[in-house]
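Q: Focus on the chain.
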Amino acid sequence: MNFVYFLGWSFFRTVYKLYFRWRVFNAERVPLKGPVILASNHASFLDPPLVGAGVRRGINYLARDTLFRFPGVGWLLRNWNSVPVDRDGGGAAGLKAILDRLLAGGAIILFPEGTRTRDGHLQPARSGIGLTVIKSSAAVVPVRVFGTFEAYGRHVKIPRPRRIAVKYGRPISFDRQRAEAKGCSKARLKEIYQEVADEIMAAISRLEPCEDKETFP
């Protein structure tokens, strides 16, 4: 972590502790070195810093590319390891930037659902994360956040002091799918992308906060 990132990391940890009474489960499952994709459900604007604040390593975040045009905001986003992506979060440039961070041994947060839930329930996974997984060599850690929809979902204008939690699952390897993807047809390749995305989403859905001992950050 650089100093600016550390200040932001510490700030969010303090806010989550004092205002939201956060809980963190199994943060030790996230490797402290090497390329990692943290794949989380998405219920609130609170989710990205929540997932990142629960682990003791720098994390790369996605941010809309237009935000980098503003001098102060752009400087802050760059120091917070943000990856510029277009409005839809896709595109060749965005994918290349994500893969470059992973190739350099970084960790990045991705949301398989693509957007925040409207009703608090898990949504189907989009194939985009499958493409990223197949084109990288990164381990995938499923992550689930709890309570953020009630605290600051789409229907909430001002964050409420509801209790929130984040739980990290065991890393998943997709070596078999990566091997098959090297020589299959384009039609099959698209199927693999979706299969990987669905498997990640299924792993997220199986995470429950009451199963394991809480890790106090």
Summary: The chain has one domain: 3-215. The longest strand covers residues 139-146.
